[in-house]
Amino acid sequence: MSSSSSKPPTNTDSETMTHVDKRGAAWMVDVGAKPISKRVAIASSKVAMSAEAASAIRANALAKGDCLQVARIAAIQGTKWTSHLIPLCHAIPIDSVEAQCNWLSETELEWKVTVKSTGKTGVEMEALSGASIAALTVYDMCKAIDRSITIREICLIEKSGGERGDYAREIS
Question: Active-site residue among 95, 140, 146, 166?
Fold first, then answer.
């Protein structure tokens, strides 16, 4: 261990920052001693676009192909690549991924991504990555029609499993 390295903190209190030591050096949390449990997380993203782009998606008339199916596959792929994209995330086994889209209005599309795993760490980041990648894929598929597409409200809706228990976002 070099002099610039530091020993990871041993305190696992949820009130402390778990990915940095007392000097602020980043490290990957050791989950080796944690019990295996069923984990589920649901995240969402919203994509606002022009009526022309929304119409093209609905009519499956985009030059690049079926936007919703490509975005669904991208969401699934995005969950599996989370540990490659987010530096301190663990590579985890994913049991299943479900990516659903729903039109909230004529021009606003919502993605909900549900990730399930049986493991030692949660799947919140995987669900958030999937929801983000689905939205980014919609932008990519439609940018020739509408470069003003807005991606917003990427958030965790709920999660279950693990030592910290369940979480559900309060809907306002």
Answer: 140
